[in-house]
Design goal:
Blueprint: H1 2-13, H2 17-20, E1 33-34, E2 41-44, E3 50-53, E4 60-64, E5 69-77, H3 85-91, E6 97-109, E7 112-123, E8 126-137, E9 140-148, H4 153-166, E10 168-169
Antiparallel strand pairs: 1-2, 2-10, 3-4, 4-5, 5-9, 6-7, 7-8, 8-9
């Protein structure tokens, strides 16, 4: 399930950063554009204060040291095409405690239906404000999420919005090799 991948990223990249980031390897980004192999999308990485890192099964994770914020893009296969976008979105938040939904709306990301959610929650005794977009495209689900402590979240939200605006699906033959 994609929730467990995001929880893994949150747990390992959450607070405090100085302990857990030591083993993370940097990702290769070509001319500011990230295109993971076999994932059929590109995203333009903006914001000089974001460091791309690779921790686990996520496509990419970015951290912002000053604001203790994270962004993660995770794509996974869907076994059943009958699973609704709403169900995929709700699965993303399983296990988060004291959830308070601030926004939950259908939107378009690169002309594809997506669920946009903003909430506050607790994970591993830390409080976070989380913004996410869940996109179902073909036989994959794309979880795009950003989180930070609630009092620091607004400082990095525009960076996440810019990443979402740059998110583009690509035919397999156009991906970087």
């Amino acid at each position: 399930m994609h929730y467990f991948q995001i929880k893994h990223v949150i747990r390992w990249c959450g607070l405090p950063f100085f302990i857990i980031m030591l083993g993370c390897a940097p990702l290769q980004v070509k001319e500011g554009i990230f295109s993971p192999p076999h994932r059929n999308y590109t995203v333009t990485l903006t914001g000089k204060d974001w460091e791309p890192i690779k921790i686990g099964k996520e496509d990419i994770a970015l951290r912002h040291k000053q604001y203790h914020a994270m962004i993660a893009f995770i794509s996974s296969d869907i076994e059943s095409k009958q699973v609704s976008l709403e169900m995929l979105n709700s699965q993303l938040f399983i296990g988060m405690k004291n959830k308070k939904i601030l926004l939950n709306e259908p939107v378009l990301v690169d002309n594809q239906k997506a669920m946009h959610t903003i909430l506050t929650c607790e994970i591993d005794n830390h409080t976070f404000k989380v913004e996410s977009y869940v996109i179902k495209f073909g036989n994959k689900v794309y979880d795009l999420a950003s989180w930070a402590a609630p009092d620091l979240f607004d400082y990095v939200q525009n960076n996440f919005t810019n990443l979402i605006r740059s998110f583009k699906f690509t035919p397999p033959e156009e991906q970087f090799r």
